[in-house]
Design a protein that fits this description.
The protein has 524 residues and is mostly helical. It is built from 21 helices and 5 strands. Strands 1, 2, 3, 4 and 5 form a 5-stranded antiparallel β-sheet that branches.
Length: 524
């Protein structure tokens, strides 16, 4: 009963450590960090599974964990190296995700190494004594070792990835929304009928400070009115409508009459009327106050209904400012772009801008992943010190990554940043499977314990990510399907490539034959 209960401790410590690290290094925790961080660190549940599967009578938990630690630490370090790439992505959410995941993986590994051995029962049942596991391993040993077939498989997969027609990457963020297409079309229709601003196009006016962009917006306003008259757009909204520039406010103040002049004019106008002589005194006071008042500034709107309207259209960056002009019913994009450019402004296509940012971030991530692949290779080489062993550990992971890409491309799925995140997770799982089969060596009982651990780990991971693959939310579906396919491929390839042949397999068959014929010679 202790194993299921205490086996949760690495995952719990991982979550707390990840959140603590993000809270320490960033001002706040992004939703993407919580949503995908806990999804990605689910792999740490494999650590106690490997530890429990190798525990048996006659060996203390501390001896067990010391024997497993080099292999476990190699997998953790290699996975952390992969997630380091997100620190250079330029996306704050991905940087937080990197910090969260690295801190979580390290905490879970240390918890498995230094906490669990003190809590579990040292006299655990040995999975190597399982009859069905032995039969399963005997069946696996009869499988032929793939050689040239893997090369053929890799060539076919690469051909699918390279030659499949259609876009390779998906840059349109709107394709990731879970909202149905019919609902989006209805939303666009309602926005049009209500005269709501266009969510794709906006005019950006940039200047040294707030007053400068307000003045530029005021010079742009007559041209926008002309565009409305020409039916190039239905309407527009800008901050200068609610908050004029200081020069315009001063100009309006100068047109207000002086107090004596206004009083004389009112006296002359009301001389023959029924109004009392002092009835316009408050009006005179208000005009005089307005004439001498300081210009209205953005901070003066705080707490008023105008604050939201102006705040969404006027952005003060400290050393620069940006005024946005929202557009309604835009029909002539070129005409609006030319008018904006003539007045030092720019018509921004937010859809195109977001796609450019996604492409830029992806290039950064891919370059960082290339560097991390070299670091991962160096880490495995330092741990194993043998070209043959390194090749046997890395081949299943590399081939699985290629197969996942081939399946996605073959199905016509355009890849996103979330597919990249999922590929890193799947690669980490494959590396763990292969490392532990390599750790088992040719000892049959250790091979059985490793098989038990990998079966439990892969089934657990496959169940979780298969459920995500059934989600109607595109992001979750992308992550779930990618990792689920990766678990299957990594498990099969690790069994075929990374496991060592048992030297006593042939001896075992000879012993069975000897017993069947009544042989008593122990040398047989």
């Amino acid at each position: 009963w202790k194993m299921p209960l205490f086996g949760v401790l690495p995952l719990a410590s991982a979550g707390l450590a990840g959140l603590g690290a993000v809270a320490l290094l960033f001002e706040g925790v992004h939703g993407i960090t919580v949503a995908f961080g806990f999804t990605l660190i689910g792999v740490v549940q494999d650590y106690p599974i490997h530890f429990f599967s190798h525990q048996r009578s006659g060996i203390s938990p501390w001896q067990n964990v010391r024997a497993l630690w080099p292999t476990l630490a190699t997998g953790v370090i290699a996975t952390c190296i992969a997630y380091l790439t997100f620190l250079f992505s330029g996306v704050d959410g991905l940087r937080q995700l990197a910090v969260f995941t690295i801190a979580a993986l390290a905490a879970a590994a240390l918890c498995t190494r230094y906490l669990l051995p003190a809590l579990i029962d040292p006299d655990a049942r040995d999975p190597a004594d399982s009859r069905w596991l032995a039969e399963c391993w005997s069946w696996i040993e009869r499988l032929p070792r793939p050689r040239w077939s893997l090369l053929v498989l890799a060539v076919v997969a690469f051909a699918v990835v390279a030659l499949r027609p259609g876009a390779f990457w998906q840059n349109d963020l709107s394709k990731l929304t879970p909202v149905p297409a019919a609902a989006l079309a209805r939303d666009a229709q309602l926005r049009s009928e209500l005269g709501a601003p266009d969510v794709r196009y906006v005019i950006a006016v940039q200047g040294a400070d707030v007053d400068a962009v307000l003045q530029m917006s005021e010079r742009l306003q007559p041209e926008l009115e002309a565009l409305v008259d020409r039916d190039a757009l239905d309407g527009y909204d800008l901050a200068a409508r609610y908050l004029p520039s200081e020069s315009r406010q001063r100009s309006r103040q100068q047109r207000l009459p002086a107090l004596d002049d206004l009083r004389n004019a009112l006296d002359a106008a009301t001389a023959d009327s029924a109004f009392r002589a002092d009835v316009f005194a408050p009006f005179l006071a208000d005009v005089e106050q307005a004439r001498k008042a300081e210009p209205l500034r953005m901070r003066d709107l705080a707490g008023t209904p105008f604050a939201a309207a102006v705040g969404g259209l006027l952005l003060d960056g400290g050393d620069h400012a940006t005024a946005l002009v929202s557009l309604t019913g835009l029909t002539d994009v070129d005409a609006v772009a030319q008018v904006a450019q003539a007045h030092g402004a720019r018509l921004m296509d937010l859809k195109q801008a977001s796609e450019s940012l996604v492409a830029e971030y992806r290039v950064r991530v891919l370059l960082a992943l290339a560097v991390s692949a070299l670091l991962l290779l160096a880490t495995v080489w330092i741990a194993l010190r043998s070209p043959h062993r390194v090749w046997r550990v890395l081949l299943p992971m590399a081939l699985t990554t290629l197969l996942i890409l081939a399946v996605l491309r073959g199905l016509g799925i355009e890849l996103t940043l979330f597919h990249l995140i999922s590929l890193i997770l799947a690669a980490g799982l494959g590396l763990d499977y292969a490392l532990f089969f390599e750790h088992a060596g040719d000892d049959r009982r250790d091979q059985l314990r490793t098989l038990h651990a990998v079966i439990v780990c892969s089934l657990m991971t496959l169940l979780v990510f298969s459920l995500l693959a059934l989600s109607t939310i595109p992001v979750l579906r992308a992550i779930g399907s990618t990792v689920a396919w990766g678990v299957l491929c990594n498990f099969v390839l690790a069994l075929l490539v990374a496991r060592h042949p048992s030297p006593d397999a042939s001896g075992g068959h000879l012993a069975q034959a000897a017993r069947a014929t009544g042989a008593t010679d122990t040398r047989a």
